[in-house]
Each structure stands twice: as C-alpha cells, then as structure tokens.
C-alpha cells in the first residue's frame, strides 16, 4: 500500500480504508514569482501534473484529493452507484479514479463542459456520464444529480456537507504546513462552491488544536472570476446573504467567465459553518479577477515557475497580484500559501494521448422531473 503518499495523512481523514493511489499535493517555496512580487516567503501548493517535481495528480486538479477521500470512506462492499454533479474538475477526478478502481459511478455535467472530461486511460464500463444538453448549466446538473441520487441503487456524494470532501481538499493545507513547518500567515485560492475555502479554514483550526505548528489564524484570501462573483459581491457588501439574480441574468454572467469551474449558483456561503463564517473568523478578503487578469497571471506563472496553470488558478494568482499591488493587505516578509488548484494540462499532453469521454445519455433542463428521469435513467445506468 502506498501510504507514503496521500494516505500518509490518513489520521487526518474520515476514511475506512486505503486506496491504491499515487497523487498528492506538493508544496515548494517559490523563487522566481516571489522575487517578481517582492515576497520573501511565498509557498506554492501545486495540485496537478508536473513529474519533474513529483506532482502526479493525473487529472491535473486538486479535486482528486476530495475524490480519494470520499471514495475511501465508502465501504468496499457497497453495491450502489455514486452520483456526482460537476462543471469539470470534480467530475474528471471521479471518472478517472472510479474507472481505475472499478467503483460504480454516475457523472452529471453540462454539455458545454464535456471537454473537461478526459483521461489518460480508457474508461471502465462502471462509469456512466449524463450530460445536460442545450443551455443547461452547473445548477441544472446539480438539480438532475439530486433526482438521480434518490433513485433505487444510487446515492449522492453530499457536496460541502460531506466531511470527507472538505478534509480531502484540506490536505493542501496539511501538506503545506507539514512541509513549511508552521501555519502560513495568508492563504490564496479561487472558489466556486466555497468548499475549498472552508476546507482550508477547518484544516487551520485542526492545526491550532494540534499545537505543534504554531498558533496562527491563517487569513483567507479567496477570489472569483468577474463578472460572476456572487460571494465576492456579498462579502464586500457586508452581507451574509448572496444577492438574488434571475436565471437569465445569472446564465449571462456565467457565460462570460473563463474559469467555468468557479460558477456554482448555490455556493456554501450563507450556511452555518460556511464560507461567510470562515471569512469572518479569519478576517478574510475576497477578490474579483477579470478574465484578462487571470490570463496575464497564468502567462506570468508559467514563465516564472515553469509550468502551465488553469484559468481558476490564474484567478487565485491574479488575486495575489492585486493584494501585493495594493500594498496594504500583506507584508513582504509574511508567509503566504498560494493554492494552485489545477495545473500541468500542457505538460500531461506531452506524455499521454488523452481520451475524451462521451455521454451515455443527454437530458434537457426541461426534462429534469422525477417521473421522467426514473424512466430514462434507471435501466441504461445499471452496472
């Protein structure tokens, strides 16, 4: 068993078993980007494919960490099919790992995001993919996923309420703190559902209870991709509630962002223990980063650090640049952790020919009704 990698942190995870997996986050101290920004203690949590630095998350995303943790919590003798709705990275992670380990799985994803579902290996028949056709978005995928998960033989992943999901994503902070030797002063990440930010906060709280790595309250710096910035807008307005928008207006905003994985219409912001409370507790900040700022940050990161990063990671890096340029939020001598949540897409294509997966079934948003779904889905998805 490869306990020396991700599952070296098994005592930090609510799991029932080890999984034979290879990837983990890597943490290293930046030299070139740090020098460019004038920062003395900038650390990178890189989650993706970068074999020269022993980064082997083969879906190029930290969503593999949550998939590992969630699947390791499911009993080995489980016969039901797990259902996950995704805008891309999460779905790709579960498809790859469930296929590799032959765990029954159903992914629901908007048709416009299907290009994000790929694998370096062929896909096992235990995996099924359902697309939301037409103008369906992530919200529609979540709605359909809920309906499917209530059918006989299926069960839901649980979203932000699933402790295994949060603890899995929190491993970026766990690995960083163990590597650095102390809790950082600042933490930067782009957010869509907000779960990653909550996970970082909860990991910090556990380190404070542990006591071996200092008593810092790590300040959260979380960002969204303009113009779809519901959590940023709410936070800057001092509100625990997200502003209400019509479906037409929301979809128009979502269509304009480059980081589609950050477009959750029902984030875990206002709930008890949600992102709002995490930001209040850490005296946190939220940022709005344009497509242009994200792209400039991506180019800069690749030039200076030597590896490509995703639009979402570009949003996080863009937020760090904004914070530095403001001259008010972070000190140049303070320790900073930048979570590159996904990267190495160009790099993995150098080593592998990728398989792009097609849906087994397409459903329109108008068809998302329990009586219609049961008839269309149950038989085709038996595994």
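Q: What amino acid sequence fits the structure above?
A:
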């Amino acid at each position: 068993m490869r306990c020396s990698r991700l599952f070296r942190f098994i005592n930090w995870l609510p799991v029932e078993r080890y999984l034979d997996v290879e990837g983990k986050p890597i943490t290293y101290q930046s030299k070139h980007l740090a020098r460019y920004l004038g920062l003395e203690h900038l650390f990178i949590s890189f989650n993706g494919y970068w074999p020269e630095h022993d980064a082997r998350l083969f879906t190029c995303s930290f969503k593999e960490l949550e998939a590992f943790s969630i699947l390791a919590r499911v009993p080995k003798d489980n016969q039901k099919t797990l259902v996950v709705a995704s805008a891309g990275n999460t779905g790709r992670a579960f498809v790859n790992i469930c296929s590799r380990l032959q765990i029954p799985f159903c992914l629901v994803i908007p048709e416009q995001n299907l290009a994000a579902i790929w694998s370096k290996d062929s896909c096992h028949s235990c995996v099924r993919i359902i697309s939301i056709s037409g103008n369906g978005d992530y919200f529609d995928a979540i709605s359909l996923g809920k309906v499917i998960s209530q059918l006989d033989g299926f069960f839901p992943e649980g979203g932000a309420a699933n402790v295994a999901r949060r603890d899995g994503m929190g491993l970026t902070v766990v690995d960083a703190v163990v590597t650095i030797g102390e809790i950082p002063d600042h933490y930067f990440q782009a957010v869509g559902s907000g779960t990653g930010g909550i996970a970082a906060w909860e990991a910090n709280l556990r380190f404070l209870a542990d006591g071996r790595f200092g008593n810092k309250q790590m300040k959260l710096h979380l960002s969204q991709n303009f113009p779809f910035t519901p959590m940023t807008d709410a936070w800057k307005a001092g509100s625990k509630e997200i502003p209400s928008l019509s479906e037409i207006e929301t979809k128009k905003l979502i269509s304009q962002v480059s980081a589609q994985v950050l477009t959750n219409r029902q984030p875990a912001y206002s709930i008890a223990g949600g992102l709002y409370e995490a930001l209040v507790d850490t005296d946190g900040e939220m940022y709005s980063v344009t497509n242009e700022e994200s792209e400039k940050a991506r180019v800069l990161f690749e030039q200076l650090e030597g590896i490509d990063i995703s639009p979402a990671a570009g949003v996080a890096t863009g937020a760090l640049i904004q914070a530095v340029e403001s001259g008010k939020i972070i000190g140049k001598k303070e320790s900073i952790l930048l979570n590159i949540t996904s990267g190495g897409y160009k790099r993995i294509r150098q080593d592998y020919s990728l398989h792009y997966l097609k849906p087994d079934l397409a459903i329109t948003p108008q068809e998302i009704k329990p009586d219609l779904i049961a008839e269309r889905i149950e038989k085709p998805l038996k595994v």
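Q: And what stands out in the fold?
A: Residues 195-210 form the longest helix (16 residues).
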